[in-house]
Amino acid sequence: MAKKKTNASANDDVLDANNAQESDAPIIDVPVDFETALGEIEKIVRALESGELSLDASLKQYESAVAKMRQCYRLLEIAERKISVLAGFDAEGNPVTEPLEER
């Protein structure tokens, strides 16, 4: 039976082929940091590339990876909004910053 991924178990391997094939339960996404989500995407890619998953399990893993990619993009957008660009220095030598321009 598939298990819900938590932050504590985020480093666990992606569902193995047997567990993924036996479960019809959707993979539940939980909020994680960028690095954890990216690591989970990499594990899913390796599992998909192995060719050991059934078609149904592959589709579920693919859908999970897409959801994690969207989460990564949201986290990157949030980080970009927080970044300031050094525009120069004022007369007293203090740094002057401006918001990062939208692309």
Automatic annotation (TrEMBL):
Alphabetically ordered keywords of this record: Cytoplasm, Exonuclease, Hydrolase, Nuclease
Q: Name one GO cellular component term.
A: cytosol
One matching Pfam family is: Exonuc_VII_S
Q: Name the EC number(s).
A: 3.1.11.6
Which Gene3D superfamilies is this protein grouped with? Exonuclease VII, small subunit (1.10.287.1040)
Where does this protein reside within or beyond the cell?
Answer: Cytoplasm
Q: Does the keyword Ribonucleoprotein apply?
A: no
InterPro entries from the entry? Exonuc_VII_S (IPR003761), Exonuc_VII_ssu_sf (IPR037004)
Region entry Disordered: which residue ranges?
Answer: 1-21
Which PANTHER family does this entry report, sorted A to Z? EXODEOXYRIBONUCLEASE 7 SMALL SUBUNIT
Family per similarity comment: Belongs to the XseB family.
Protein name per UniProt: Exodeoxyribonuclease 7 small subunit
Its gene is: xseB
